[in-house]
Structure formats: structure tokens, C-alpha cells
Design brief:
FAD/NAD(P)-binding domain, 7-stranded mixed sheet, alpha/beta, 3 domains, 5-stranded parallel sheet, globular
Length: 426
């Protein structure tokens, strides 16, 4: 029998940005709620800062806090891993063998890096010129970039969905700036973006803008190049390349290699009853894309990177999803209809250099929208400043504390109304 030690009204699996923000907003609505978070990590990282660190723009200590300092007061922190579920008993089993019962469950465990899917990556990551901001190696990325002497600098993008899809390019544009600022390095360097995809960005208008940027910079883009192996002894990156004739293997020499690894839902989610039964193989949590309620278990909600939602996996998406989960969960608890709707809003601020960024906002319809009443497809210094200074402050001081980020005027106007006022963005 399970050793049931904990029993709570609401249990949140995952104490990252989604879990903490959700708990904070729930308590702001009702301070008497009984909430527990299952989360094993002692530290909480501002992950969007890893890219900034790779460009020398942030220091490691700016991006981390103790988990105990960001989990809301009044929330029960179960410092353990969730490993399995018994939906008949509304029960979670943890790695230490204890049982946690719930009346309502919120799943936001984040995403896992599948390093093993690229042969040689685990063994060489963090050395031999191979790095990945996605693995928290922003400091090593910056070391490689600032000390680069020339040669092939390759930046990759995998065939799976990943968190913050634009981050694979952000580091590349900053690196290109650094290379070109150093005498002799820029002219002796070839920067390549090797992507398993067929375009630079999912939203056509933003993809077009990025195509113009890489062309202006002289960056070589290789489409349908899926990294499958790294040979550190010969500094070769091996790709499966899709051609009209079929898939062929191509080897490219590298002097610097930044890898965006394949990703998927955590293994314990893939094996759970909450995973998609007919998904793309990622094992994503099977939720309704509008209400965020699980499709088969009414007392379960999901949000964040591990869900099946057909939108980009970013902190901004989490920020937009949390109020929907909070409102719909509270409605469910009161026996009322679920009226809150998530329209797929997400944002990916793409740094395109040390003084410019494209603030890529969009929703399920893949039409550019703007929170700043400007054409979001254009590079702007103001958006670079928002990315570097405003967003980290908002994250630590507003989002994680469950406080609203928008002004009353903005909330009254609404993103959808603004998009209709500016159809030229599409």
C-alpha cells in the first residue's frame, strides 16, 4: 500500500515559473486555499536570462534565487519528485515512495532535454567547443564566443518542439556581432544556422523579417539539417539532411557548436495517464487548448512547456495561461461553467544584436500582435531594452508574485482588439 502522508485540496506538480505563478494567483483570489507544490529543486532560475548570459549581458547571480524565497507563503512545499499517478484514487506517488492525494491537480512540470538523441552530445557538452544555453551553459557559451579565433560557428535547431524556439537564434546574432567587432575574426568566420525545419520561425511575418536579417548579416542558413551526432575528436557535426531524393548524411566541421537539443515531456508524464494518446511522440499533457482542462480528467489542468498546446513554449505563454487555469479551476470548484479562454498568446523577444530585438507576439492564428502599439516585425532598440531590463524585473517582482503585468488601459483594450486595429502586421 502507498504511504499516504499528504492530502491537499490543490496539488501542483512542478515548481517552475508556471507552478509558482499559479499558486501565487490562486492565493490572491482566495488565501484560504490549501495548496501544495511538488518540486525537488532547491534553486529557481530565470531561464530567459541564459541567452543574455551567453552574450555577456547578465551575470549568473542575477538569474537564480533560492526556491524557498519564491514559493508563495502559505503553500506547502513537498521537496520531492513526482514519479507516477493513480487517477482512481487521485493520488501521486513520489520518488521517496510517499503518496500525495489531491482534489484538484495542476500539471506544469516543464520540459526535458533529450541529449541522448544526439550521439556524443552528453559526453562533449560543456567542453571541446560544444555548448547549449538550453542546458544552462550560458557562461560557457560566452567564454567560447568572446575567445573565438575564427572558423565555423554552427547553431542548431532540432526536429522536436522546444522551449523558447527563438533562443537558438538569439545567441547566434550576438555571437555574430562579437565576431565582426574583432579584427580578423569576422572575416575568417562562417556563421551557420542548421535547422531541421523549413523556415526560421513559425509565424510567416516574423520568419520573413528574420530571413532579411540573416541575409544582411551573411549568415548561412541550412534548412532540413537535423543534428544527429557530434564527433569531438575530429570536430564534426553530423546531420541527417532531408532532400527530394531522401535523407542523406552530411558532415560539417565546427570550431564552435551551439546545440538546441531535442526535447519532450518528462518521462514520468509520458508514462502517465495524462499524456496524449495519439500525439507526436512528445508525450505532452493532453489538455483542451482553450480551457486548459485535461481532456479525460475533469479535475486536472495543465499549463506550460509540457502541454499539448499548439503554441510556442515560452515564459510569456505561461504568463497568459496561468489566469485561465486559475479562473477555470475556481469555477470548477464552485460547480460553475469554465468560461476563461486561452487564445494561444505567446511572446518570443528575439535579440537580433546588441542594440536590437524583434518582440515577436502572436497567438493560435499565427498573426503578429503587439502590446506596445508598434509594428512588432521590426527590429528596435527599445525592444532590446525591454528584453534586457524590463522583463527580468517583471518576472521576479510581478509574475512570480501573482501580480498583474498589464495596466488597466491595456486590459480594457485587449490584444485581440489591437490586432484588429493593425491588420498590416499580418
Amino acid at each position: 500500500m502507498e504511504n499516504i502522508i499528504y492530502s491537499h485540496q490543490i496539488v501542483i506538480v512542478g515548481g517552475g515559473s508556471g507552478g509558482i505563478t499559479t499558486a501565487a494567483q490562486l492565493l490572491r483570489k482566495d488565501k484560504n486555499l490549501d495548496i501544495a507544490i511538488i518540486e525537488p529543486s532547491e534553486k529557481h532560475y530565470y531561464q530567459p536570462g541564459w541567452t543574455l548570459m551567453s552574450g555577456g549581458l547578465m551575470k549568473p547571480e542575477e538569474m537564480v534565487k533560492d526556491k524557498k524565497d519564491v514559493i508563495p507563503k502559505g503553500v506547502n512545499w513537498i521537496k520531492d519528485y513526482a514519479v507516477s499517478f493513480d487517477t482512481d484514487k487521485n493520488l501521486i506517488i513520489t520518488a521517496s515512495g510517499i503518496g500525495v492525494q489531491y482534489q484538484y491537480l495542476i500539471l506544469c512540470p516543464g520540459i526535458q532535454l533529450d541529449l541522448h538523441l544526439i550521439k556524443g552530445l552528453k559526453e562533449t557538452l560543456g567542453k571541446n567547443g560544444v555548448t547549449s544555453n538550453y542546458a544552462g551553459l550560458g557562461a560557457y557559451s560566452w567564454e567560447l564566443i568572446k575567445n573565438f579565433k575564427g572558423g565555423n560557428a554552427i547553431f542548431t535547431y532540432p526536429a522536436t518542439p522546444i522551449k523558447c524556439g527563438g533562443a537558438a537564434q538569439k545567441v547566434m546574432y550576438m555571437a555574430d556581432d562579437v565576431f565582426k567587432s574583432k579584427s580578423g575574426v569576422g572575416v575568417n568566420t562562417k556563421v551557420m544556422f542548421c535547422t531541421a525545419g523549413t523556415k526560421l520561425f513559425a509565424v510567416p511575418a516574423y520568419s520573413k523579417a528574420l530571413e532579411e536579417i540573416v541575409e544582411r548579416r551573411g549568415i548561412e542558413v541550412k534548412y532540413q539539417h537535423n543534428l544527429k551526432e557530434i564527433k569531438p575528436e575530429t570536430r564534426e557535426a553530423i546531420f541527417d539532411v532531408t532532400t527530394p531524393e531522401g535523407v542523406k548524411e552530411v558532415s560539417i566541421k565546427y570550431d564552435l557548436l551551439h546545440v538546441a537539443p531535442p526535447m519532450s515531456a518528462p518521462d514520468f508524464i509520458k508514462k502517465s495517464p495524462f499524456a496524449q494518446q495519439n500525439g507526436d511522440g512528445g508525450g505532452w499533457i493532453d489538455v483542451d487548448q482553450y480551457t486548459l482542462q485535461h481532456k479525460r480528467y475533469a479535475n486536472v489542468f495543465g499549463l506550460g512547456d509540457a502541454t499539448s498546446l499548439p503554441t510556442s513554449k515560452t515564459a510569456a505563454a505561461v504568463r497568459a495561461q496561468v489566469p485561465v487555469v486559475v479562473e477555470n479551476l475556481l469555477a470548477l470548484m464552485k460547480g460553475k461553467p469554465l468560461t476563461a479562454r486561452y487564445d494561444g498568446y505567446t511572446c518570443c523577444p528575439i535579440i537580433t544584436g546588441y542594440n536590437s530585438a524583434i518582440f515577436a507576439e502572436f497567438d493560435y492564428e499565427n498573426i503578429p500582435i503587439s502590446s506596445f502599439f508598434i509594428d512588432p516585425t521590426k527590429e528596435r532598440y527599445s525592444m532590446f531594452l525591454v528584453k534586457r531590463y524590463l522583463l527580468p524585473w517583471l518576472y521576479w517582482n510581478r509574475m512570480l508574485k501573482g501580480k498583474p503585468l498589464e495596466t488597466e488601459m491595456y486590459k480594457k483594450l485587449g490584444l485581440r482588439q489591437w490586432r484588429q486595429k493593425a491588420p498590416s502586421f499580418a
